[in-house]
Amino acid sequence: MFTALTRRTLTAALLAVTLPAAAAQGGEVFRVGYSASGDRLAPLTVTLRATTPAGHRVQWTFGDGQNATGEQISHTYYRPGTYQIEVSLIDPQGRVISRADIPLQVLGSGGERADLTVLHAADGTVRLSGLGSVVYRPGPVRVLLNGREINGPQRLGTGTNTAAAVAITSAGQNVQRQLTLTHAPMTVSAAFDSEVLRLTNQARAQGWNCDTKRPGGPGLPPLKGHLTLDVAAEAQSAGMALYGYFDHTSTLDGSSPMRRVQAAGMTPTSVAENIAAGQQTPKEVVDAWLRSPGHCRNIMGDFTLIGLSYVQRPGTKFKNYWTQVFARL
């Protein structure tokens, strides 16, 4: 069995702003833009970027009473609403020489709640994140394992393990979500992961045609393995092996491929995921993906990075579980 899914964030509001002649020497341009989750749901973290002439600086006014300075800034809008982002270009003498406005609509995510994203690893460790929580106020979402607040990977104990996310709403109420985690022996294979990467990049170099299912099209640059994406890929393979599902949405915590990548520590502009179960060798699984239109489009897609995970858990329905996670920053 195998299936493919793509999740993307929206990049929008790319503007080229006219500069005074004195600031535009050498063809330099003042460009501004932002990227944010395509669903635009609060709390919404927006990454704002500007390209400026040498010696100039940028000031952002976010429209919610806060501001910052810098060519790349991340800002979180906790409440739904329509905001006007103002960006000012300031010359070396401290004068504002150009301005641009970016309208931003932030949508409501429903009632405030705590949520939990669980990243299992085959070695019995786990990472917990409060991603998926909806809280319309600043403040951390606390994550706990067996009643103890944690930060970073933790080893699961034998028997039952309880994970929880705890948050305080804008009204000052405590909300939480609790999950019971499973631990079981699993194995991985670095050699299998390396071979999947080699075969994937071989198909890209050969210009694999997803329609004719043979090489011969324009070649693509190789994908580069990334440890953060490996964490997200292993969480998916291990999750399927532990909880008996075969889907891009985890039946344990409801996480999507994008959410798992973000919980692992990356905020890309696009993400895609290929999964498979039951195939016994890297060649078998990559051949199956290349002959499936959705998987093939991911392999031949406009991505630059990849995470890989093969996990084996004997005694389960499929025994072998495979995941590819593609991303572009």
From TrEMBL:
<dbReference type="Pfam" id="PF00188">
    <property type="entry name" value="CAP"/>
</dbReference>
<feature type="signal peptide">
    <location>
        <begin position="1"/>
        <end position="23"/>
    </location>
</feature>
<feature type="domain" description="PKD">
    <location>
        <begin position="59"/>
        <end position="111"/>
    </location>
</feature>
<dbReference type="InterPro" id="IPR035986">
    <property type="entry name" value="PKD_dom_sf"/>
</dbReference>
<dbReference type="InterPro" id="IPR035940">
    <property type="entry name" value="CAP_sf"/>
</dbReference>
<dbReference type="Pfam" id="PF18911">
    <property type="entry name" value="PKD_4"/>
</dbReference>
<dbReference type="InterPro" id="IPR013783">
    <property type="entry name" value="Ig-like_fold"/>
</dbReference>
<protein>
    <recommendedName>
        <fullName>PKD domain-containing protein</fullName>
    </recommendedName>
</protein>
<keyword id="KW-0732">Signal</keyword>
<dbReference type="InterPro" id="IPR022409">
    <property type="entry name" value="PKD/Chitinase_dom"/>
</dbReference>
<dbReference type="InterPro" id="IPR014044">
    <property type="entry name" value="CAP_dom"/>
</dbReference>
<dbReference type="InterPro" id="IPR000601">
    <property type="entry name" value="PKD_dom"/>
</dbReference>
